[in-house]
Every structure is written in structure tokens, then in C-alpha cells.
From TrEMBL:
Keywords: Aminotransferase, Pyridoxal phosphate, Pyruvate, Transferase. The gene is phnW. GO terms for molecular function: 2-aminoethylphosphonate-pyruvate transaminase activity. It comes from Cytobacillus horneckiae. Its cofactor is pyridoxal 5'-phosphate. Gene3D superfamilies: Aspartate Aminotransferase, domain 1, Type I PLP-dependent aspartate aminotransferase-like (Major domain). This is 2-aminoethylphosphonate--pyruvate transaminase. It catalyses: (2-aminoethyl)phosphonate + pyruvate = phosphonoacetaldehyde + L-alanine. GO terms for biological process: organic phosphonate catabolic process. The keyword Acetylation does not apply. Involved in phosphonate degradation. The modification N6-(pyridoxal phosphate)lysine is found at residue 192. Belongs to the class-V pyridoxal-phosphate-dependent aminotransferase family. PhnW subfamily. Residues 32-326 form the Aminotransferase class V domain.
């Protein structure tokens, strides 16, 4: 098979050294392995600027959605009610999870290219005092919009609501002070901005909140409280853990630190994203999200003409070594290019040359 670099927002392009960590089969109950889990948990707290007194980290087998579902079923009891804010498919997936579990919730939906409105949210909270939790996606990977985390954080703090943030595609690539933002549960996964391979998700949780959740979960495997209690003893996971993925993730964390930490990685992503958008604008591609709302993670581009064939474009670009992503919108013809992962300026420049060739606009 011809190899290519992934410009998709997870799984993404990882380093050779991260992949090489998976060449050794580790024992799940051996102390060396359990120490890797504990190391990861400590380092994720550091990335979040959180202290071990106030916060804890729980790792959960499965893709990111499993971790989201584990938070929804564990953190929200039958007496609670969630306000789920949506402007994309990942927010809508959370609504679907809430439906499946049978949670009490209200959905506040806005257009995919718009921010949720602060006044509307405050009004909803003022009118319905039974709401206990607010749930929002940070970077909506559907479009690439970066939702206003400061706004929702201050609203949640003003009204004293528990705040759940799906920061799947942003954590590790966008600086976030989790305690300062008053986030009670932040969810992300191994194969996004930390640049590991797929296989588990993680939750950075305020201990005081999680400690009150015993017995809430309607699922055995996804019980975040039980998972925490077990893992917190000595780093042994409840049920088989994805050993290869965990080892690779530990290496990916070391490489993130070596890169200079989250701020440096955010810089690389931001510069690459700017270069991509500038060059593609010159080649005739407009973006779906306006610049001030755009994340440094992934960008939705509108088809340049009515005759544009994504299929032919995709295969042309893939043949030259890059895989991009179809769009996920119903009201506009778009495709997406992610720029997270082990991708440097030269890669983006190569990609833009390829796209200019396709469009027949190469200088
Ligand atoms: C990737 C992602 C998820 C999880 O998706 P999985 O396919 O389960 O890994 C959830 N929310 C957002 C915003 C994402 O980008």
C-alpha cells in the first residue's frame, strides 16, 4: 500500500518513535506498566494546570466517544438535568448519548458557523433552575469552530453549574487552564492533539464532583467512578487496558514536552493553519468559519465551483501523499483539512503546491 500522511483530525500522523513503543508486549499487572499509567495521569494534570489535590485523571478504554458517554452516564444522575449546547455533529452526538441513557436534558442549538449566545444561555438557566450541568464541545471538529470557552466558563460559575467540556480535538493543542476555567470534567482522547494512536480516552475530573457519583452509571464498562476507584489504587486498569496504546501515549507525552509543551504545539498548529488558509484562499477556496472563530485544529473549505468533484480532488491529493477529510455539513458543500499531528510547515507547503496543481493555479 502506498503510504500517506494523515491530515485528518484523529487518527493523525504520529512520529516513528511513538509507533516504535508498540513493538514490545507489556504485562498489564506488572509494576513497570502500572507506573506508565500513573505517569500519564500525573502529566495530564500538569498539562491542565491542575493540582492532584483538586483534580484527578481517569483513563477509559475505547475511542473518545466512550469517554464522553462514561462522563454523561456517571456525572449526571436521575435527579439532575443537563443543558447541552450544540453547533455541530459532536454536540449532537452528546444529545444522542443523553437520549440513549434517558437523561433529563435540554438542547440549545445554534447554526454550525455561529457561537452559542451568552444572553440566551443565561435566560435558559434563569428560567429553568432544575438545570444542574452544562455540556459543550470546545473545538467542534465538524466545522473547525473554536467555541467560546471563557464565556461558558463564566456563565457556569455565575450559576453554580457543573461544567462538562468535550475538548477531544483541542486539549494538548490549545492551552487551557482547567481549574481557572472551572471545568469539572474535561474529556479528550489518545489520538488527537497529544499525538498518540487510538485506543483510549481520558477524563480530567474535579475530585469533589466525581467522588459524589458512586452508583450513578447505567453502564458497567463505562462507570467512570468505578474506573477511577480501581485505577487510583496503583495504576491498574479495570478490565484489559490497551497496553500498546498506553505505552505509545506515554512516549507522545514526552515528545509534547520536548516540543516545548502545549503553548509551542499550539504555535506550530496555528502557523500551519494560517499558512494553509492563506495559500488555499489564493487558490480559490473560501472557508466556512470566519477567521476569528477558526480553531488552529481543522478547517472546512467550501467547494470552489459547482463542478468541483471532491472524489477526484481527494484521489489526486492522496496519490501525492496526503489524506484529507470530507465535509460533514448539510447546508454547504465542504471538505476538511486537519493540521494536527506530526505535520510541519514543509508538509503544509507541499500540500498547497499539490492543491494548486490540481486547480491549475500553480505559480
Ligand atoms: C474525535 C472527537 C470525538 C470522539 O470521536 P471518536 O470517533 O469516538 O474518537 C468527540 N468529540 C470531538 C469534538 C471529536 O473531535
Amino acid at each position: 500500500m502506498k503510504q500517506y500522511k494523515l491530515l485528518t483530525p484523529g487518527p493523525l500522523t504520529t512520529t516513528k518513535t511513538v509507533k516504535e513503543e508498540m513493538l514490545f508486549d507489556r504485562c498489564t499487572w506488572d509494576s513497570d506498566y502500572k507506573e506508565i499509567t500513573q505517569k500519564i495521569r500525573r502529566q495530564l494534570l500538569d498539562f491542565a494546570h491542575a493540582s492532584a489535590e483538586e483534580y484527578t485523571v481517569v483513563l477509559m478504554q475505547g475511542s473518545g466517544t466512550f469517554a464522553v458517554e462514561s462522563v454523561m452516564t456517571t456525572a449526571i444522575s436521575n435527579e439532575d438535568k443537563a443543558l447541552i449546547i450544540t453547533n455541530g455533529a459532536y454536540g449532537e452526538r452528546i444529545v444522542k448519548i443523553a437520549d440513549y441513557i434517558g437523561l433529563n436534558f435540554v438542547q440549545y442549538a445554534v447554526e454550525y458557523n455561529e457561537y452559542p449566545n451568552e444572553a440566551s444561555i443565561r435566560k435558559l438557566l434563569a428560567e429553568d433552575e432544575s438545570i444542574t450541568h452544562i455540556v459543550m464541545v470546545h473545538c467542534e471538529t465538524t466545522t473547525g469552530i473554536l467555541n467560546p470557552i471563557d464565556m461558558i466558563s463564566s456563565v457556569a460559575q455565575d450559576y453554580g453549574k457543573t461544567l462538562i467540556i468535550d475538548a477531544m480535538s483541542s486539549f494538548g493543542g490549545v492551552e487551557m487552564n482547567v481549574p481557572a476555567l472551572g471545568i469539572d470534567y474535561l474529556i479528550s482522547s489518545a489520538n488527537k492533539c497529544i499525538q498518540g494512536v487510538p485506543g483510549f480516552g481520558f477524563v480530567i475530573a474535579k475530585k469533589e464532583k466525581l467522588a459524589a457519583c458512586e452508583g450513578n452509571a447505567r453502564s458497567l464498562s463505562l462507570d467512570l467512578f468505578d474506573q477511577w476507584k480501581e485505577m487510583n489504587k496503583d495504576g491498574k486498569w479495570r478490565y484489559t487496558s490497551p497496553t500498546h496504546v498506553v505505552a505509545a501515549f506515554s512516549k507522545a507525552i514526552d515528545e509534547l514536552i520536548a516540543e516545548g509543551g502545549i503553548a509551542s504545539r499550539q504555535n506550530r498548529y496555528t502557523n500551519n493553519n494560517k499558512l494553509l488558509r492563506e495559500r488555499l484562499a489564493q487558490a480559490g477556496f473560501a472557508t466556512y468559519i470566519t477567521e476569528e472563530k477558526q480553531s488552529p485544529i481543522i478547517t472546512s473549505f467550501i467547494y470552489p465551483t459547482e463542478q468541483f468533484s471532491f472524489d477526484s480532488f481527494y484521489h489526486f491529493v492522496k496519490e501525492k501523499g496526503f489524506v484529507i477529510y470530507p465535509g460533514k455539513l448539510t447546508d454547504a458543500d465542504t471538505f476538511r483539512i486537519g493540521n494536527i499531528g506530526e505535520i510541519d510547515e514543509e508538509d503544509i507547503s507541499d500540500l498547497c503546491n499539490i492543491i494548486e496543481d490540481y486547480m491549475g493555479v500553480r505559480a
